Amino acid sequence: MANFTKTQNSFSYGEVAPEFYSHDDINALSYLENMDVLASGGLTRRYGLARIAQLPSNSRLIPFSVSETENYILAMIPGGMWIFNPSGTRLATLNTVWSAEMLPQLQYAQRFGTMVFVHPDQAPKILQKTSSGFQLNNFVFERDDSNMNVFAPFMRYDDAKDISISVSTSDQGNNYAVFSTSQNFWRPDYVGTRILLNGQQWVITSYIDSTKVVAYVNGGYTLPTKSVSDWAEETFNPVRGWPCSITFHQDRLIFGGSRSYPSGVWMSKVGRHKNFDIGTGLDDEAIFITLLSQQRQQICTVVSSDNLQILTSVGEWSISNKPLTPSSVDIKQHTSVGSFSGYYLPPQKIEGATVFISNNLKDIRELSLDELGERYNATDLCAFAKHLMLSPIDIAYNATEHRLFVVMTDGNMAVLTKNSSLAINAWGRYKTNGKFKSVSVVDNVTYVVVERGGKYSLENFSQNSMRDADSYDFTWRASALPFRASGHNSTRTRIRKITARVWDTKSIFINGTRADLPDDIYSDNSPGFSGDLSINVLGTNHDITSPIWTIHGNEAFPATVLSINISGWYSV
Q: pLDDT digits over 523-553, tens only?
């Protein structure tokens, strides 16, 4: 039997999984709910949620920042887009083509007051903020006014490599022809799509059958004397699908992958984001590459960082050229983690690294360059807290608070406070009366969609809110790891006293006992009590897996804990 005094003045690892309970060399907790880890390593009750708008249905939140002073929240609903300002005033309602099933795969990229949306089953759309309001239009490739050709990418798909096209005249006019394929190929969805044949762009105007369509060309044409085997179709069309991912990089618009060509990367001309003409390979002209590897892979997303990062279902690639030109594309695969491809979980920029969710939905990886700036590593940020990763459905990062929010399918959020300069990498969980459905950060404020009783609302975390949605109290709790002292696992412990050093606190329970606080702190102009609060504990604990102390509360008052000190005796 031995006496002990033990102080924990940092909780910088947050909650860890049970397999790490015997590690008394880390400043960790066995449970952390609705509390945040401070820069000092202390704990504080999270902000409450302020309800700012009612939503018609479940929604996906997307940030839209036009300038430093002009920021908006896009609430994507089935078939529509509601646009809010930060205070929750709805400024516009736009109709969209994306169903409830499509919204999770919707990806986007923004440049100034323009945002481009892509989805593998729909043509890209452009959202623009103009002086007259918000407009959502089709993404249209740049056009050559001299011959009405478009500067869209063209390619020959593998299933068409053995197909040749015979061209014959059509009774619809001099600029029309009948395209007959050597085997079944055409579908009604090809109407409106362009074919590149004999150096001319043809538009399919009508469908006859699976081997014949009518095509139109702007200007005259010469009938070929034999069937044409060298032809291509528009890369993106209703039959083949549309881009899956998108970003802007070095003033190029980048499309990554499509439904029919999952490993392709298309890059526009420099400064001409609707022009994908590869031309003669000059430095500013468009670029097309294919990721080559032994495994089939789907490009999940493309990220503009120090390099162009390409995250696929089986690994992480980068193109490091500066500037990026057609003659100097240095592409390599660095790691083999893989990203989740079932729906879009937008990678986040955290402290210069790209943070993404792995293909197994269990890892949150930090993609960063090594010290030499040559190779990327993919460090697992949740190695100590895998139990909190319960099928993520949305993710966002608040750089001001150094906090990463990950919404789970069960309606809770896993929250990471990460501050490398202060050695803080702390996981915890947020819960509310209801379910979190989506999260986004706009102008350093964290917004969420919350479902309560079958109704949906847009809310934000506010330091002025002590409750959720102005009505609901929530429980906060932090529990210690099972007790160890001097490197020993105890079999029996008897705690004489637990002391919590608090700051600006108005309500706190320690091991189920409410701490006594001075009456004068409850006035509106008092920030709360700062100092030491103690309780005496009786009884012997034989449960070696239970936490030795728990601090908690559920009242609408502030609470901040800087350290915990315990004293008593133990035996091994």
A: 889 999 999 999 997 677 766 778 889 999 9
Boundary residue ending a domain (184, 216, 234): 234
Is 565 domain-assigned? yes
Torsion angle (degrees, nearest 10) of CA 431, 433, 437, 439:
-60
Residue with tokens 């690994």: 315
Asked if the structure places residue 419 within a domain, the reply is no
Domain-ending residue, one of 205, 234, 263: 234
Query: What is the 3 state secondary structure string of 340-370?
Result: CCCCCCCCEEECCEEEEEECCCCCEEEEEEC
Write out pLDDT tens, residues 51-73: 999 999 999 999 999 998 999 99
The token duo for 18 is 């049970």
Beta strands 299-304; 165-169: pairing state: unpaired
Quickly tell me which residue has 């069937």 as its tokens. Answer: 227
pTM over 0.90: yes
Contact 83, 129 (CB under 8 A): no
CATH of the domain at 28: 2.60.120
Q: Is 311 in a helix, a strand, or coil?
A: strand
- Hey, which residues does 422 pair with through a beta bridge? none
Counting the structural domains of the chain, the total is: 2
